[in-house]
Write a structure and sequence with these properties.
Elements lengths: L6 H16 L7 E7 L2 E9 L4 E10 L5 E3 L4 E6 L2 E11 L4 E9 L7 E6 L2 E4 L23 H14 L41 E2 H17 L1 H6 L3 H18 E3 L2 E6 L2 H5 L14 E4 L6 H17 L5 H20 L4 H4 L4 H4 L6 H15 L3 H12 L17 H11 L5 H15 L16 H17 L4 H16 L36 H4 L29 H4 L3 H17 L1
Protein name: Endoglucanase
Family: Belongs to the glycosyl hydrolase 9 (cellulase E) family.
GO molecular function: cellulase activity
């Protein structure tokens, strides 16, 4: 392609020249960065309009330019206001992001790009310069005191912003594009898909599996709430996006990839996942390096999924159930902490509670999915293995510690084993009467993500109330916690909903301008204004112990979002829809 423009390219340029003449708006596929006298550095970043092998980008300026430096390829000057950047080394598919960094040198007033083309196809013609901001697709319903149905819709919508891989045609978050399409290439497997964990771009399998389990549990036991809110299919899609990835990650018997991306490499990059260039290593558990927590939680997630899809897609239900059974056997037979086998996970999602809770959790869900009583017997055995010490007191229900969820489930599935009922009663009573609270009324179970912990327990309160356990009291407590999150103190902690909601979450993708536009040189991370994208439905971490909260992008303790934050929260919202 170098040095010669094809006939198609010439036709495209001719068309673009006419458009350029007719309009003088700035093309926001080009973002100016560093500036100095009569010079600036800039980045061209745009989705490819078609598959490409080699790239030629025409740039049209509104004022004269002396020269352009493009060090990764070459720059050709057609005239003072038309330059072509050429890079034969680039190739990719339609929709993938093409990013070229260049320097412009000019004789006087600063020029800006007003039109551009990729390989002769106009992509920015001056007639439009920005992607319209996404409007909340979740309509209000008028439900009071809070619109639980709308927030449920928004809470599920958030997962579309966290999607990795090839995005579907019905993707509602329009500022996200295909990303991480090479995941797994380092090990010869297709590990595309799944969810980015939080405000970063690592795919951590352990919390992702808990996220799937909790979304699925809500779809099963608060089904009427999902149905009334019109969110059943969206909830199923959110669940399946995770479990489709788990099926890919299950690459052989007793072999499962539990993480893609290195935490250190990833966290040193602030930008869109579409523009990532860092190494993304794939990490697994297998017979020689097992991981009981990861295998057990994924088994639970897949068993839940088999129930959700049993009457929707019988073949898929059977497929995920077979893998769930195998992973549970792997978790039980080859016992080891998963973060020993995947050391990078230890700095982010170490399993502090051990693996007995995941073994119990998985066995109970497999019984519910299969009606095979041997799983109940094995669950009792796992229960007996859980350490009973003062340091092992149950004080949370989370991605790490599944005991409260398992005890709850056990009361339904194995009521003759009364220890389950005793233990969940003890935990819920402790939460209501002895646990710490903020002055405004939020149960404060952890400094990191207290909203998430409150929502997790609210889910359990609603669920146990439906089983007849202190029904009125537990529902009142749970509704109060969700009320705090949605605005009882004058602040909503759900992005895009209610009054005074967070506008600067610690979240890389939403901190970047829409394509067109770029996210580089620290601007998106450190600028004082709101994130350019509204991350509808995301639950932020929450306040300090005295209800203090600052909407600060750099405060990842209180203002980050995560897939597991929303997982039980959406189920609790479905429970509230049922009550209203």
């Amino acid at each position: 392609m170098t040095g010669v423009l094809t006939k198609a390219l010439l036709l495209g340029v001719a068309t673009l020249t006419l458009l350029h003449t007719a309009h003088a708006d700035r093309c926001e596929y080009v973002t100016i960065g560093d500036e100095w006298t009569y010079n600036y550095g800039a980045v061209f970043s745009a989705p490819a309009p078609s598959d490409y092998s080699g790239v030629s980008v025409d740039l049209y300026f509104n004022r004269p330019v002396d020269s352009i430096d493009y060090y990764q390829g070459s720059a050709q000057k057609v005239d003072d206001q038309h330059f072509i950047l050429i890079d034969d080394s680039l190739s990719g598919l339609a929709g993938s992001i093409i990013e070229l960094k260049f320097q412009a040198h000019f004789p006087g007033a600063q020029p800006v790009v007003t039109a551009a083309a990729i390989n002769g196809e106009p992509i920015c013609d001056g007639a439009w310069t920005t992607v319209p901001p996404l409007q909340d697709p979740c309509d209000p319903t008028g439900m009071m005191p809070y619109d639980y149905a709308q927030v449920l819709c928004m809470g599920i919508l958030f997962y579309e912003a966290e999607r990795s891989g090839y995005l579907p045609a019905d993707q509602r978050i329009t500022w996200r594009y295909d990303s991480a399409l090479g995941d797994g290439s380092d090990v010869g497997h297709d590990l595309t898909g799944g969810y980015y964990d939080a405000g970063d771009h690592v795919k951590f399998g352990f919390p992702m599996a808990f996220t799937a389990t909790m979304i699925g549990w809500g779809l099963i036991d608060f089904a009427d709430g999902y149905k009334s809110a019109g969110q059943v299919e969206y909830g199923q899609a959110a669940l399946k996006w995770a479990t489709d990835y788990f099926l890919k990650a299950h690459t052989a018997h007793w072999e499962f990839y539990g993480q893609v991306g290195n935490g250190g490499y990833d966290h040193s990059y602030w930008g869109r996942p579409e523009n990532m260039t860092m190494e993304r290593p794939s990490m697994k558990i297998d017979e020689t390096a097992p991981g009981s927590e990861l295998a057990g939680e994924t088994a639970a997630a897949l068993a839940v999924t088999s129930i959700v899809f049993k009457d929707v897609d019988a073949a898929y239900s059977a497929e995920v159930l077979d893998v769930a059974k195998e992973l549970y056997e792997f978790a039980d037979a080859k016992r080891e902490h998963y973060h020993i086998s995947i050391p990078d996970a230890a700095g982010y999602y170490q399993s502090w509670s051990g693996y007995y809770d995941e073994l119990l959790w998985a066995a109970l869900w497999l019984y519910r999915a299969t009606d095979d009583a041997t799983y109940l017997d094995r669950a009792r055995g796992h229960y007996a293995e859980i350490p009973v010490t003062p340091n092992n007191r149950l004080e949370q229900f989370s991605w790490d510690d599944k005991r409260a969820g398992a005890f709850s489930l056990g009361t339904l599935l194995d009521p003759e084993f009364t220890s389950y009922a005793t233990d969940i009663q003890t935990f819920l009573d402790w939460v209501k009467h002895e646990a710490p609270y903020t002055p405004g009324g939020l149960v404060y179970l952890d400094t990191w993500g207290p909203n998430r912990h409150a929502a997790n327990v609210a889910f359990l309160m609603f669920w146990n109330a439906n089983q007849g356990l202190d029904a009125a009291e537990n529902r009142q407590w749970a509704q109060g916690q969700i009320g705090y999150i949605l605005g009882d103190t004058g602040r909503s902690f759900v992005i895009g909903y209610g009054q005074n909601y967070p506008k600067r979450p610690h979240h890389r993708s939403s901190s970047c301008p829409s394509l067109p536009g770029t996210c580089h040189d620290g601007w998106a991370e450190k600028q004082d204004g709101p994130n350019p994208q509204t991350l509808y439905g995301a639950l932020v971490g929450g306040p300090g112990a005295n209800d203090e909260y600052t909407d600060d992008r750099m405060d990842y303790v209180h203002n980050e979002v995560a897939c597991d934050y929303n997982a039980a929260f959406v189920g609790a919202l479905a429970a509230l829809v049922e009550l209203n």
